[in-house]
Amino acid sequence: MKRALRNGVGLIAGFFTGCFLPSSDRSVQDQDVGRAAADGVSIRVDDGLASVREVSDGALRFWAAAPILNIHASFAAGAVDTWTVTIDNCLPDATLTATAPNGRALPVTPLSGDFPTERRFRIERDREPDLDLSLRPPDADDTGTFRFALLSDIQEALDRVQDIYARMNQDPSIRFVLSAGDLTERGAPEEFERFQLELRSLRVPYYATLGNHDIASGDGLYQRYFGRGSARFVYRGVQFTLLDSASASIDPAVHDELSGWLTQGRDRVHVVAMHIPPLDPVGERNASFGSRNEAEALIGRFVQGKVDLTLYGHIHAYYAFANGGIPAFVSGGGGAHPEQLAGIGRHYLTVDIGEGGVGVTGVVRVDEPE
Amino acid sequence: MIGWAIPGLARVLQRLPPIVLVAALACAPLARSARAEDPPPPPPTPSPIATSAARRALNVGAAIVPGLALHGAGHAAAGQWGTARSLFGIELAGLGVGAAGALTFWYSGASPKLVGPATALTLLGGSALVASWLADLYGVIASEGGTGAPERDLPWVEAGLGYRYVYDPRFLYRNLAGASLDLRFRPVHLAASAWTALDAENQRLRATLAYRLAGPRPARAGIAPADDGSFLDLSVGLTHHAYHNEQFARTLGEGFALGRLDLGRIGPTLVGSFAELGLGWALGSAGYARGQSEGLTLLLMRFAFGLYVGAPGRPRGEIALVYDHRHEDYVAGLLMSGVVSGVLGHFGLEGAVYFNDLWGVAAEVQAGSAALVGLSLRYRVPSGKVK
Predict the structure, then answer these.
(1) How far is C-alpha A259 from the geometric centre of its chain's CA atoms?
(2) How many angstroms separate the CA atoms of A189 and A225, rounded?
(3) Is residue B155 reached through a cis peptide bond, with omega within 30 degrees of 0 on the bond before it?
(4) Residue A133: partners with Cβ closer than 8 Å, 6 or more residues away
(5) Quick one: which of B336, B337, B353 has its CA closest to B345?
(6) Nearest CB to A287; choose among B107, B286, B342
């Protein structure tokens, strides 16, 4: 009888969680991103800003989800001294330093990578049991204006994305690409592998959150490949906050994290990006949060937190509007089935930004002949 | 707020998709009001379906298999071919209309130029599909004469005091208290409601003014009551919802057309059941404590399949399964992973029963991105009591 009651309560709790907290599993999985242990090595990436792809004897591999990474490694007695650290999705000019807890710098030798955003380094840890690794580009503390691109909703156009990457490569001022999600159509492993393969021709990294299509094959797969669905990083004085809204809502645990991120971003230029927008500029369509109440509460928090720019995907067109007075853009031009009669096809956005604020935004159309 | 509302209401009427008005007005001939010279309505034809338990079980089984795919199969098994054909026809119409809407939605890439009518058609088609299957099931389950009869004379006044428990993990409120008042005079119906949270700072105020083109109204001397519970209403409304804890508030004006069809008009076995369909549009704004207001629009749609319970002289009322496309009331819209994330509204079960001429209770359960259960005490002043 007690067991039946326990099972019944568990079933009801599970039903409520699934219906009203559809992204709760993903927010829990986010906490595991950047942590791994194997072969006597324990790895932790600060703020989960990289996915740990490989931990094996003498080799570490990461997928970077931000320009700056701080990685802590602990080695058991008997672990090898020479380590090859590979960081994928990296700024091409980023450098890696290794420091022992007592502050001693250890030798790091850059090795050649196979493509622009793959950086490889050899580290001699000299029997130090703990190492702090720091990946930083040379302009990390530069407060001047820089440019990033926004490209979302590639989905079924994975095999046609090279022309977009080629156009981006023609603009040397683009430092990285930000994505508001839907990298793939079904979120299947072979699609994530294909996405990575196609990305090798892009000369800058691609920092993303996930979309509703990326979780179609189940939760957890995206995080294993590309990192957290909700994360925050700072680059050149600008804070970028990426939020997992792939289930047309934000998990309460992420709302709690967001409180801290909004506080940290209050005195900075702050960009927030997510896949499904809180409010669809076309209200009748409601390609947005399932709850207008949650949507407007979230926008109210952005207003109070002095967010400077909000960026969204999900809608396969381009819209420029405002959320509570905050400039907002929807750009879903990566190639997924487009919104008809919108007057725009495949495209990406460029944003010039710096400590002084958000500058010019531009739309680069790839669907027109040059 | 009022100054904004008047031009806003004009825009609401301009933006109602033409198909909505056509569909709504097409229902009008189905819900013709009785006139003084009309003869009293005939008594409902008793259901000729055999009532042996085994036979009923067979009919119910047929309504499920193959009835889930072929709506009306239950009635066909019962030998009610006329009603079976009607229900199957409604299913086919629903499939056609729904497919037209869904395909328009898909191929247009949810273009804003087409998304309103496309969504409305999809929901319309889906409603027809659900109604035809539930009607088939009802007809083979219900006893002879149906589950109940509708009120054909409406009260002048209805008032309610209620409580709601809302579980929304994103907000502080859980317990709400509310009051409602409905005033009817001939075809005009003024309704107002107010809900306030008991454990947070949150209030929702709503008022609607409806004109009944056809259907039950308060009793009038010399005027026969309506034939049944079918009706067609056109209404305008205003909703203000203040989220003080979250420091924002929303005000919406709306236009809405709502029709109900007593399904006994389709077949005698369906007496006691009804289907409702409503379409409309809302326009308004959300204001933030420290930010600029922004304009909002919503497509409104409501579908219900229900039963009348009870009969004159006994406790009577109605219960209905409801789909509501609103995304801004307490339960908002469903949260689903996948392609339809955020698009759907919420579902609910609602009912009201009056124990005598004056007192009754209403109950509701709703599920969207939040869950709600509610109970209200209701009081009415019957129109038949006023000379």
Answers:
(1) 19
(2) 9
(3) no
(4) A69, A70, A71, A72, A73, A85, A96, A97, A98, A123
(5) B336
(6) B342
pLDDT of B11 reads: 47
Q: How far apart are CA B352 and CA B364, in angstroms?
A: 9
pTM for the predicted model, two decimal places: 0.89
**Which residue in chain A is spatially nearest to B167 when comparing CA positions?**
A20
Query: Rounded distance, CA B378 to CA B359, Å?
Result: 6
Q: Are B302 and B275 in contact (CB under 8 A)?
A: no
Q: Enumerate residues 6+ apart whose C-beta is below 8 A from A217.
A: A186, A187, A188, A189
Q: Which two tokens stand for residue B160?
A: 């309610």
CB pairs under 8 A between A and B: 181
B123 touches A at CB < 8 Å: no
Q: Tokens 């998709």 map to which residue?
A: B17
Asked if A288 is an interface residue toward chain B (Cβ–Cβ < 8 A), one would say yes
> Burial letters for B50-89: b for 16+ Cβ neighbours within 10 Å, e otherwise?
eeeeeebebbbebbeeebeebbbbbbbbbebeebbebbbe
Give the Cα separation of B33 and B54 in Å (integer).
41
Contact status, residue B273 vs residue B47, Cβ threshold 8 Å: no
The tokens for A68 are 């700056």
Residue (of B76, B43, B83, B84) closest to B59 by Cα position: B76
ipTM comes to 0.88
Residues of chain B short of pLDDT 70, as ranges, are 1-51, 339, 385-387
Cα–Cα distance for residue pair A246/A38, rounded to 1 Å: 31
Kindly state the helix (H) or strand (E) to which residue A97 belongs, with its residue range.
Answer: strand A95-99
- Nearest CB neighbour to A300, from listed B168, B288, B338: B288
- Is B341 an interface residue toward A (CB < 8 Å)? yes
Axis-axis angle for helices A189-199, A162-169 (nearest 10): 30
Q: Taking CB atoms and an 8 Å limit, are B109 and A342 in contact across chains?
A: yes
User: Which of A20-29, A75-84, A196-205 has the least mean pLDDT?
Assistant: A20-29
The shortest C-alpha distance from B17 to chain A (Å) reads 11
The chain B residue lying nearest A213, using CA atoms, is B338
pLDDT, tens digit, for every residue of A145-186?
A: 999 999 999 999 999 999 999 999 999 999 999 999 999 999
What is residue A344's three-state secondary structure? coil
| Structural contact between residues B71 and B98, judged by C-beta atoms closer than 8 angstroms | no
Per-residue pLDDT tens for B62-103?
A: 999 999 999 999 999 999 999 999 999 999 999 999 999 999
Q: Which residues pair with A273 in a beta bridge?
A: A242, A311
